[in-house]
Design brief:
There is one protein chain. The chain contains ten helices and 25 strands. Strands 13, 14, 15, 16, 17, 18, 19, 20, 21, 22, 23, 24 and 25 form a 13-stranded antiparallel β-sheet that branches. The longest helix has 23 residues. The protein starts with 14 loop residues before the first helix and ends in a 17-residue tail after the last strand.
């Protein structure tokens, strides 16, 4: 067992580090490059203390599961192992993972699989690529202003970790799911026990400090692989949820990137780690929902101008508490790797006509045998628990079947495209409700007695009973800055449920935890809302935003048509509505033309919908960049195109 304890906050020029490193025989190391496959695992091997100093076999269960494949391997390093509370997980210290046995000069090799022993010296490398997740300790990602362990301490220790592992690792992930409740605690005077929620900006500042520190160390890798790649943390995907997420995932991602831009540090953003998971009960064994969550995050990254940066999925999985779910997981792992490969070799998945942003690799969470908290996700556990070798029922063998396809790693250069802010991105003629990629790709969501049909260039939203709601949402596609336009014709302005108090249509944009709804209430609504156009907060419908609460001079009745244009540009939101048929119609004078400044939500879905309205028809939907000039004002029907 190596008796060296990883030094906290020693400068890289410290004599102790120089002397120790000088004792390591150069012959022990083979220079590495990056894994060439799409496959990866989270927690490659045993992590209990008894393994410290032991020599593990050159071939492990992971190699048998993915024979001949170079894997991406996510491991965790806790760098504040001298904290005042004595938090010191020996198995997650930087020295444990790679160099604990190098001092004896014979059997030294990387426990975390970058190279493998033959006899008593280093032999041919497995060439798995380590990705180290760095954080101060469990439940600590961003040092708080009150912590004795500061951002500067964290950055210095990240440099130490990079130096210690310079022969084994060049990919780093700073923190993990900072928007998750319970992932962040701060010092309360005696322990790290007080929960808090760092902002995206606070995380970005921490990332930058750690990234700069890691870049002071040059990896001793093969030529062409000698630069550090420091990945921004993966958010927990999904909207804010009490007790689960303190912050909308897409919004957190957007704002942590935006902070790098606003502080003039765009060039220092090396790349991104992402998480996405099988959709419970979703189509294609949950793969379609998995790809939707992934696509949304890539769209956030691309729109902000980072389509040329590497992306690695450091967690994906399927919850498998029983045999039926394990069978779904076995099919999911095969379908998801196939989908990722198709994504990497395809185009138009997010931005019509544009190449897709590549995924370098995807790490299943988790690989190693865990009989506790994570057993329902563990490939090794499921291998024995399910039994048999059928790749369609046993997830371990499902992974093996996926690995047999030999899908290559995606490009480290990203390969994606930044959407043109002067261009039309996509449009829908509504001859049908298109529900498959690529765009238009809508998710219909209806409740009570509502349905949506489309033909002859019209999408009909009909309510017949109950308190109906009918919407089309861009699930899997999110937008921050854009210009959108569409028309709506009121066919039957009545309330379906006369006790509901309103009958409306709306467009929701940047929809997430704090999005926006531009809502038009018909003359059949109650007196306080009838014939009004309001801007409301999604999920907080009583919040009126920016004073947009306009009473129209004429009632909103059957046969009225409204052409709506929304331009979102940063915190500036402009809404223009023309009444193009009906009493008071005009193609040149809008009934609403108002701008507001609001930073509540920067990115999210688009949704067209009706609530408690007997019938409305949507037409002429088009979406483009914020500087796109729009469709001709005199277009009244798609037949003109």
């Amino acid at each position: 067992m190596c008796t060296h304890v990883f030094p906290r906050r020693l400068p890289l020029t410290h004599p102790t580090l120089i002397a120790f490193c000088a004792t390591l025989p150069a012959a022990l190391f083979a220079q590495l490059n990056d894994a060439n496959s799409l496959y990866g695992v989270h927690w490659y091997a045993t992590t209990d203390n008894a393994q410290v100093g032991s020599v593990q076999p050159a071939t492990t269960d992971a190699e048998m599961m993915a024979p001949g494949r170079e894997l991406w391997v996510l491991e965790i390093n806790h760098v504040d192992d001298n904290s005042p509370t004595g938090q010191s997980d020996v198995w997650s210290r930087p020295d444990y993972f790679n160099a604990y046995d190098l001092t004896n000069g014979t059997n030294g090799y990387s426990r975390a699989v970058t190279v493998g022993p033959t006899g008593t010296s280093i032999g041919s490398g497995k060439n798995h690529s380590l990705v180290y997740r760095l954080q101060p300790n469990w439940g600590r990602n961003v040092p708080h202003a009150s912590d004795p362990y500061t951002v500067s301490d964290f950055a210095n220790d990240c440099a130490g970790a990079a130096n210690w592992n310079r022969k084994f690792c060049r990919f780093w992930q700073i923190g993990n799911e900072v928007n998750i409740v319970g992932e962040n605690t701060h010092w309360n005077g005696s322990s790290y026990a007080t929960s808090w929620d760092p902002t995206p900006e606070q995380y970005a500042d921490t990332y930058l400090a750690c990234r700069d520190a890691i870049h002071t160390v040059t990896p001793e890798f093969a030529t062409g692989f000698q630069n550090q790649v420091v990945l921004m943390q993966p958010v927990s995907p999904g909207n804010a949820s009490p007790g689960v997420r303190s912050f909308d995932g897409n919004e957190f991602l957007y704002r942590q990137i935006r902070r790098m831009i606003d502080t003039g540090n765009s060039a220092k953003l090396d790349g991104f780690a992402l998480h996405s998971y099988a959709e419970p009960g979703g189509s294609n064994f949950g793969t379609d929902g998995f790809m939707d969550g992934l696509r949304e995050q890539l769209m956030v990254i691309d729109e902000l101008g980072f389509a040329n940066k590497p992306v690695l999925i450091t967690e994906f999985n399927k919850h498998m508490p029983d045999a039926p779910n394990a069978a779904i997981g076995a099919r999911f792992v095969q379908a998801s790797y196939a989908a990722l490969n198709s994504w990497n070799v395809g185009s138009g998945g997010a931005w019509p006509g544009q190449p897709n942003h590549d995924i370098m690799g995807a790490c299943w969470f988790i690989f190693l045998n865990d009989t506790g908290t994570w057993k329902d996700y563990s490939l090794q556990y499921q291998k024995a628990f399910i039994g048999g070798t059928d790749p369609n029922t046993n997830p371990w063998y499902g992974f093996q079947a996926a690995a047999a396809q030999n899908y290559p790693a995606g490009s480290i250069t990203g390969g994606g495209a930044t959407p043109d802010q002067n261009a039309l991105w996509w449009q829908d003629d509504f001859n049908s409700i298109d529900t498959t990629p690529s765009l238009p790709d809508w998710l219909p969501e209806t409740s009570a007695g509502a349905n949506i049909t489309a033909n002859a260039g019209k999408a009909r939203f009909v309510g017949s009973s109950g308190t109906p709601s009918a919407t089309l949402r861009t699930a899997g596609y999110v937008y921050g800055n854009f210009r959108a336009e569409f028309t709506v014709t009121i066919v039957n302005n009545a309330q379906v449920n006369s006790g509901a108090g309103e009958a409306n249509f709306d467009v929701r944009f940047r929809e997430g935890s704090m999005g926006y709804s531009l809502t038009v209430f018909t003359d059949a609504s109650d007196a306080s809302r009838k014939n009004r156009i309001q801007l409301r907060r999604v999920n907080n419908w009583g919040e009126n935003i920016g004073g947009v609460n306009t009473l129209l001079p004429n009632p909103i009745v059957n046969g009225d048509t409204f052409r709506t244009i929304i331009v979102a540009n940063g915190t500036n939101l402009t809404m223009t509505v023309y009444k193009t048929s009906g009493l008071g119609a005009s193609n040149s004078t809008p009934v609403l033309n108002q701008s507001v400044v609001d930073g509540g939500q920067n990115v999210g879905w688009l949704r067209l919908g009706t609530y408690n309205l007997a019938e409305a028809q949507f037409d002429q939907f088009a979406l483009g960049g914020k500087d796109w000039t729009g469709l001709p004002a005199n277009v009244n029907d798609w037949s003109l195109f």
